Amino acid sequence: MIDSDLVEVKVNARGYKKPVGKPAIYYGALIKNEYDNQRVITNSGMKIKHKTRDISSSNIIERYIKGVPVEQPLMLHRLYREFKTLNPSCAGFAKSYNKVLDKYKLTCSEGMGYISHGMLLVDGVHINTVTDVPIRNVLKLDLDAKNWFEGFANLHIFIMY
């Protein structure tokens, strides 16, 4: 069992690397603290760190993700280019993003609070819509373990720029 006090501890960034390419597109879990870092294990995924800027405060935020690259994400590249041409202000950022998502019949209801300048999210349920390359078993779960449920995490599609 992982110590729940670790939710108050910053992520140990050892082993995390910057994403490759811009935009870099990954499917995985957002790691918010050391508790998440220890409980979420990927099968063959990567550990990504990416600096973003908060929409309202403009503060720099380091985001951590465990996941796999999305292959052939043509729809997401189009979505990203369209969103970037809007150049939304802080006040209109989420509204502008939702409008673009609606056009592609995608959502961001589970991760809207984490979008920022430098990182957009799409709900993970859309993974089979945005790529023809199947992605399965991102998380490594030991269903025989006593605390098997600790390894579950919401999966998102991350567009990092």
Low-confidence stretches: none
Order of SSEs, N→C? EHEEHHEHE
Query: Main beta sheet, described?
Result: 5 strands, antiparallel
Quickly count the domains: 1
Helix vs. strand class: alpha+beta
Provide a count of the helices. Answer: 4
Mean pLDDT: 91
Question: Total number of β-strand segments?
Answer: 5
Question: Helical proportion?
Answer: 10-25%
The radius of gyration is 16 Å
Strand content: 15-25%
* Strand order in the largest sheet: 2-3-1-5-4
Anisotropy-based shape = globular
The rounded distance between the terminal residues' Cα atoms is 36 Å
Can you walk through the features of this model?
The model has no long low-confidence stretch (mean pLDDT 91). With 161 residues, the protein is of the alpha+beta class. It has one domain (4-155). The longest helix is centred in the middle third of the chain and has 13 residues, at 74-86. Helix 2 packs antiparallel against helix 3. The chain has a 5-stranded antiparallel beta sheet with strand order 2-3-1-5-4. It is globular. It contains 4 helices and 5 strands, in the order βαββααβαβ.
